[in-house]
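Quarterly update from the structural biology core.
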Amino acid sequence: MKVEYINPFIESVHELFSTMLNSKASRGNVAIARGDGASHDIVALIGLSGPARGMVTMAFPVKTALNIVNRLLGSDLRIMDDTVSDAIAEVVNIVAGGAKARLKIGNGPPIDLSLPTVVRGNNFCVDYPTKSIWLEVPFDADLGPFVMRVTFKMEEKKGDG
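Predicted structure, tokenized:
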């Protein structure tokens, strides 16, 4: 995965926080992800297919997830439930969708997004495919810290043949 491909995802996070959450998220250093990473209580995953194949994940501590969901929904939720899972799924969907729009390649086919998947709890491990290279971007926001990981490969252009 080329490092410059991470920028549309970072821009999408910034746009989500500034426009929908009336907040600010500052990114840390982009690095190649090593292992499972920091502890997380809720992880949202969404797949990319078409001219770009891969996955985007966002991992949040409970407090950050609740702060984001409460700001997004104008609510005062205090426990992790289906509403929180659904809203966090929508967060990763918005981020991936924003990046997808920025990654549009000429007149080629669009990048497709899968339905988001959310895993929550305090005793799980996310195992990523061993040969995939993930770029990890930590964020620090006034709503709390979180981590985004992205991996994908752009489809090679076919010759005229």
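The longest helix spans residues 82-102.
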